[in-house]
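INTERNAL AUDIT FORM
Audit reference: QA-55
Scope: verify that the stored structure record matches its stored sequence.
Auditor: D.O.
Record contents follow.
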Amino acid sequence: MRTPWLRLVVPAVLLTTAARAAHIEAGDFHIELSPSSPAVRSYRLAGQTVALPAPQKVPMLRINGEDRSPQVQLRKRAADRAEYLLTCPGEGVVLTLEVAAQDRALHFKISDVVETGSTMVKTVELPGLALLAGQGNDTVALGNFPRPGYGSDKPEDRDLVGSVQDLAAEARGVSYAFVSTGKIAAGLYSNVLDEKSRMRATVDGGAISVAPGTWTWREIPGETVMPLRATLVVALDENGDGQVTWQDAAIAYRASTPGPYGGERGRRYPITHIAMNFGSQATNPFLRVLDNAKKIWLYTDGLGQRIQFKGFQSEGHDSSHPDYAHNVGRRMGGRDDLNFVMRRAHDFDVLSGVHINAHEYHRESKAFHPDIVNLDRIGWSWLDESYLTDYRHDAAYGTLNQRLADMREDLPWLDFVYLD
């Protein structure tokens, strides 16, 4: 049994709930932390102070969707960092939340979750950790990834830009959030996996507050996802236009937070296209796709391309899932042609990828097995019948990882995968 207190050997200042707030700082960025709950009371930059709302009518902590009231200890580690210990004695759970100030950025990281009881932590939320706030004429920009589908005009899927006082009262998930008082601006980053709810924005009484969404600590038993992170980024006039707007916060956000995975390739490979084969028709044989890529390379003086082979397996798109390997479509040219195309495409600055599905599987596939599907749940039926799968179960106990490894061996020049 692990005892989390034994590893805290570095001298630290212990702040109990009866103590004053802890102050940490980095340069001219000063932060006041609450000792009674994981929260920021205020921050100050270049003489501009922003007070954040005290947590009210919200739980301090949610684990697996259930409200918890943990014991809180705050330790100041250094001038620029502190650490919260959140202990839930009844569940045998202790969370370590590290707080670190950097030049115009405040980083939060749940670095450790100790489980000594029967509770297995799957999700974590800190509803009271409001890191953005605004009211009245303060301006706000909320960006949203649309929900899955072929188009959406739902209000919750739209970006919102305007004054806080003009926003309707609601609580909603957002993908990006920025607030400006006109003198100081701020943005919030989190690595919450649900892109539509990286943050939770609450508008009430002419004011807005934004906290990180629900983090995933564990999807399947035995594996944790990653350290859980959130970052408050503050900004002044970053673009030098004489104003401090939400756009200045967005500029600082871009400089202080991780870029999207693979984002560095965007400028190098601006041309993207899909080579589609469907219903045994083989309308885009692999060798023809390579010929077309060569023509585009010539027409554009060598601009980089990305090609997705959609329907590379069996009889084409949405056939024989989940055969990621050992079943490249013969009608399109077979495995040898596809490997030749992927290898030769690199000579023309072309990346090659394939479309696969981990959600719906077909009986006719070589990799089909009743243990990884639900035969009572029907998926796509426009060709052969498909059955829905529990991809978490398939990843933990099924054959998903082995099939992906087989695909890598079968297609050694594969550059990327598009996954349904």
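Auditor finding: record pair retrieved intact. The first strand starts at residue 13 and ends at 15.
Action required: none
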